[in-house]
Amino acid sequence: MLGPVILAASRSDRMRRLISAAPVTKQVVDRFIPGEGVDDIVPVVRDLADRGLELTMDVVGEDITNPAQAAAARDAYLELIDRLKPLELGTRAEMSVKLSMFGQALEDGHELALKNVRPVVEAAAEIGTTVTLDAEDHTTLDSMFAIHEELRKDFPGTGCVIQAYLFRTEADARRLAANGSRVRLVKGAYKEPASVAYQDKHEIDRAYVRILGTLMEGTGYPMIGSHDPRLIAIGQELAHRAGRKLDEYEFQMLYGIRGDEQTRLAAEGHRMRVYTAYGTDWYGYFMRRLAEKPANLRFFARSMLTKG
User: Oxidoreductase: present as a keyword of the record (predicted)?
Assistant: First the structure.
């Protein structure tokens, strides 16, 4: 299994330096991360929106070690929201945030992360859009869900992410589906121990279908985060069985992966949201994309061999 090896490499400074220095890396990274600054990303937003696609924007970053860095992450999102305002896209362009970037792992991190993320959620609401709290490793989730619940008191559209490979997620899904939350379901992209997570791909897929069924039958808004054609088809069937209209759920895929399928789903009238990341600290995000899907790793390796 290469996935765990790649995830370990995502935290290796030596591998970071090696991969970052490779001549072909930027060309390959650009497939998944279309820019380093907000000036790069605004034209991408316009292009995707003009093609009938929706977006969730992620300012990538890793390893926040002090409150000043957490504040800088907050300010980067506030700048993004300010630049999105003239586009008047409303919920067609939302934000995704990792609470670790807002200081969650620091001393008094729960309170610090809530303090830093609240202005972002407020600013998003002012331009008619929302924020989704990304899920990270299992040790952070109780804090993430507590912050999600707190933010929803004033901003009920605030979303969160749940991960099918964790044993706890079926119970989390039942709770979230009952209280009307916006929930993105993904398989999971962090290295988790067998004590808390399924390790077998087929077990993860089965859990994904069970959890998605719970979300579709609930009162919330399910967001199907998958590139798997079979799970996409199952999602459509579950939505049909639950009597959901096309605007009562959505699909989400990563920028740079299955672009033709994204366009097809949008053309059929589905809400199709593209997870679009940008920023200079792209390494951890990039490595998790390689770990998630063998085809991504093959693409990178082939490019290294033919272009390096």
Answer: yes
Instruction: Please tell me the pTM assigned to this model.
Output: 0.87
Which whole-number Å values give the CA distances from 222 to 73, 207, 245, 293, in the listed order? 27, 15, 12, 23
For residue 280, give the DSSP letter: S
Which of 58, 134, 172, 205 is catalytic? The answer is 134
Alpha-carbon distance 6 to 9, whole Å? 5
Alpha helices in the chain (DSSP H): 2-9, 13-21, 25-32, 38-50, 67-84, 109-126, 141-152, 169-178, 201-217, 229-241, 259-267, 283-292, 294-307
Please report where in the chains the tokens 């093959």 appear, as a residue.
298
> Is position 260 annotated as part of the catalytic site?
no
pLDDT digits (tens, 9 = 90+) for 117-133: 999 999 999 999 999 99
Concerning whether 184 is annotated as a catalytic residue, the answer is: yes
Ramachandran area for residue 232 (φ above 0: left; ψ -120 to 50: alpha; else beta): alpha
* Cα gap 208→210, rounded to integer Å: 6
**Contacts of residue 223, Cβ cutoff 8 Å, sequence gap at least 6:** 132, 159, 182, 183, 184, 185, 249, 250, 251, 252, 273
**pLDDT digit string (tens) for 194-203?**
999 999 999 9
The single residue of 74, 152, 182, 184 carrying the catalytic annotation is: 184
